[in-house]
Amino acid sequence: DIIYYLGNYYLTTNKLDKALSYFNEALNLNSSHNPSHIAKGIIAERQGNISTAIAEYSSVQNENYADFLNKRLGILHYKNQNYKKSIEYLKKTKKDDAVLFYLGLSLISSGHYDEALDSWCILAKRYPKDMELERNIAKAHYLKGCHLVEKEDYQGAIREWEKYLEESGEDDEVKKSVAMLNYIAGDSALKGKEDDNLKTAKEFFQRALELDSNNRFYLYKYALLNLYLNNFNEALNFLEKLSGSEPDKSNLKYYKGLALLKKGEKDKALPFFNEIINSNKKDIYTDYARWVVANEHIKEGQYSEAIEILYTISELAK
Predict the structure, then answer these.
(1) CATH architecture of residue range(s) 1-61
(2) H or E element: which one contains 90?
(3) How many Å separate Cα 240 from the centre of its chain?
C-alpha cells in the first residue's frame, strides 16, 4: 500500500513513468492489488493505450469498484469499436452524463436508434442548450431515417428526417431527400382510391413542394391530383406555373383544357385541344385531344364532324 501511495502521488502530478514504476513494484509484491491495476489502467488511458487499459481494468475482481470499472470499460470498448461490449458495461453502471453520452454513441453505432435517442434525450433535459448533444440527436434521427428507407418504411423515414431538419436547421440535400420520400409516400397512397387515401396523398405532395418548390415533377403530379379531386382552379394554377417555361408542352395544354372543360368553361377549353390537334405532333395527347373534341361534337349532335376527327386517331390511342 505504501508503494501504491507513492505511485499515486506521481500519478496526481502527471509523472506517469515514475508512477508506473511504483505500481509495477506494488504488483510484484501482490499481483492482485486492485488499486494498482486500476492506476495502471488510468495511465494506459492517458497514454492512449486502450487495449492495455482494458486488460488492467478487467483484471480487477472487486464489487467495490464495479461502477467505476463498468464506466471505464464501457467507454474504452466504444473507443475500440466493440459496441456490443460497450453497451453491456455501460448498462450496468450509474447513468451519469458520460455514461449516457457514450451509451448513446454505442447504441447508435449498433443500429439501436430508439435506445440511443432515449439516452440522449435524458441528457438533453439536463443540458437543454448543449450544441454537441443537439447535433448527436439530429444525427440519430437522420441515421434512423436512413435505416427506415432501406426497409422501405418511407413514412417512418419522413418522420425521422423531419425531426433531423427540426434539430439541425437548414440542410438542402436532406430537404430534397425528405421531399422525395413525401412524393413516394404520396404516390403509394394513390394506389387506394378511397377519399382518405387521396387526402393523405395530397398532404404528402404538399409537403414535398414545401421542401422542393421548384421540382417540376412534384408540381405536375400535384396538379393532376387536384384535377382528379375536382379542385380545378388549384390544378390550373399549378399547370400554369409549369407552362411558364414550357408553353408548347402538349400534356400541359391537354390538362389545362380538361380542367376548364370540367369547370364548365367549354369556350376556354376547346382552343387548347384544337391547338394540340393543329400542331400535328405525333404523341398520345394529340389523340386524347381529338377524342375530347369529337366527344363534344357528339354532344352537340354534330356526328359527321365527330366521325371525321375519330378517323384521324392513331392506332395507339385506339
Answers:
(1) Alpha Horseshoe (1.25)
(2) helix 83-90
(3) 32
Match 396523398 to its residue by C-alpha cell.
201
Residue with cell 404523341: 283
Long-range contacts for 76-79 (Cβ within 8 Å, ≥24 apart)?
76/45, 76/50, 77/106, 78/102, 78/105, 78/106, 78/109, 79/50
pLDDT digits (tens, 9 = 90+) for 30-73: 998 999 999 999 999 999 999 999 999 999 988 899 999 999 99
Residue type, 231: N
What does the DSSP 8-state code read for residue 175? Answer: H
Q: Which three cell numbers stand for residue 220?
A: 405536375
Contacts 24+ apart (CB under 8 A), 10-15: 11/39, 11/42, 11/43
Largest CA distance in the chain: 117
Place of cell 470499460: 73
Domain ranges of the chain: 1-61
What is d(CA 235, CA 259) in angstroms, rounded to the nearest whole number?
7
Asked whether 268 and 237 are in contact (CB, 8 A), the reply is no
Backbone angles phi, psi at 266, to 5 degrees: -60, -40
> Per-residue pLDDT tens for 159-215?
999 998 888 777 788 889 999 999 988 888 887 667 678 888 899 999 999 999 889
